[in-house]
Design a protein that fits this description.
Length: 439
């Protein structure tokens, strides 16, 4: 068999990219290791904004559709003690993952893409030192496909990226436990209605999973292990709703939480989605953030295929454009948050009480200018003087801001060509080493 593009994985990233490229007339096949019945069943509910749904032209669903779960526009940020609540607005839609992925796959197939379920990637086929196809396992044995480009959309396991030879052009690291965000979702029935809430100190939240306001997902996330997430869950319950709900079921999952590979392309190869660690630093969500990169990749790959050249040089614009925009923003946020999360519960509570950072302007995406920054700095200075915020915390926050700014500047000056990447990587390595891992 011969295709223009082989996509490893058919979840949200794989189906999205398959549709985009098949719509342009290319021969596309998705190889999905799971069966059709199992695809997208690891977790039930996921969220996105209705704005993103329109922006990326993905299947739109409404109340009554099988994939639709709920919608909400109001959210809240709470202080650790729950004494101070800041309301925010959004346009969130909740979706059933398995059913929604099926819709996305159907869209890709309607556009002309093919899919083979129960097809687990095994290894690459090379011609003259470059990827020219893949071998994959099925119930009927090992099969082989020739292609011009392979796109790895295989999720956190990144089976395509990790199978690349050393030095091929994209880092082939495997994610370690320290590189993952561990999420526990408890589906609960409360004895009275609950508002949608996020707690910064425990990285926890209440979010709906139905239209019944007494039914909420109690979500908690932590880096490193499920044990850490469970401790934060216990802390949250002790401070909020212990004994006020009946647990219906529990789900556990992970999402990447580390910097992406320095290059997302190599000769005849692209990596995206969770396989490329393209998750939002503030929440770990990666569905729509990956689509930003894939829109760029689809345009660049289209041009490269038309010219008959899918070398890393021909695909390099994907790196340059992505890293100078979203890559730079995410890098700043990742560096800043890694340091800022060291604040204590008391310090966070004080900031809520006095509207320092934890106010509607900052939390609701309001316009932040010189006036707002000046007010924050004044509030922090006063808090330090009164010993409500420690010098250690301030040093950590300032360090995060400085490192974030330096990293953002570096990514905004991402190299124009592969031959300049080595020198750029040395600078990036030094900065990320100073950032360290989020705790």
């Amino acid at each position: 068999m011969n295709y223009d593009i082989v996509i490893i994985g058919a979840a949200t990233s794989g189906a999205y990219f398959a549709k985009k490229m098949a719509s342009k007339g290319y021969g596309v096949i998705m190889l999905e290791a799971l069966t059709k019945e199992k695809l997208g069943t690891r977790m039930d509910i996921f969220h996105m904004t209705k704005t993103d749904m329109r922006t990326f032209d993905i299947p739109k669903v409404k109340e009554g559709d099988e994939a639709w779960a709920f919608e909400f526009t109001e959210n809240h940020f709470s202080s650790p003690s729950n004494q101070y609540i800041v309301p925010t607005t959004s346009d969130i839609i909740g979706l059933h993952m398995h059913t929604y992925i099926a819709l996305m796959v159907d869209d890709a197939i309607k556009a002309g893409a093919k899919i083979e379920y129960g097809a687990a990637f095994k290894e690459y086929v090379f011609s003259k030192g470059r990827i020219s196809g893949v071998r994959y396992k099925t119930a009927d044995g090992v099969k082989e496909i020739s292609c011009k480009v392979v796109v790895d959309c295989s999720g956190s396991r990144a089976v395509g990226r990790c199978a690349l030879p050393n030095g091929y052009g994209v880092e082939n690291f495997e994610l370690q436990k320290e590189d993952m965000f561990y999420v526990i979702l408890r589906y609960a029935k409360f004895d009275k209605p609950q508002i949608n809430t996020f707690w910064f100190n425990t990285k926890s939240w209440y979010a709906p999973f139905s239209t019944d306001n007494t039914e909420k997902i109690i979500g908690t996330g932590a880096t490193g292990s499920f044990e850490k997430a469970e401790k934060d869950s216990e802390k949250l319950d002790a401070n909020t709703s212990k004994g006020n709900f009946t647990l219906m079921r529990t789900e556990k999952g992970t999402t990447p939480y580390r910097r992406p590979p320095y290059s997302l392309v190599a000769d005849n190869f692209i990596v995206t989605g969770d396989a490329a660690c393209l998750t939002k630093p503030d929440c770990g969500e990666g569905v729509t953030s990956s689509m930003v990169m894939m829109d760029i990749a689809a345009r660049v790959l289209d041009s490269a295929l038309q010219k008959g050249d899918t070398s890393k040089e021909a695909l390099w614009e994907i790196n340059r454009e992505y890293n100078r925009i979203q890559g730079a923003e995410f890098s700043f946020a990742r560096a800043f948050l890694t340091k800022a999360v060291t604040a204590t519960d008391y310090e966070i509570e004080y900031c809520f009480a006095n509207g320092i950072v934890f106010n509607k302007t900052f939390l609701d995406g309001g316009k932040i200018g010189a006036k707002e920054i000046k007010e924050v700095l004044s509030g922090i200075t006063s808090a330090v003087a009164k010993k409500h915020i420690s010098a250690k915390t301030i040093a950590a926050v300032l360090s995060g801001a400085a490192l974030g700014t330096a990293i953002k500047t570096l990514y905004m000056n991402y190299p124009d060509s592969p031959d300049k990447l080595a020198a750029w990587t040395k600078k990036a390595d030094l900065l990320w080493k100073k950032v360290g891992r989020i705790q």
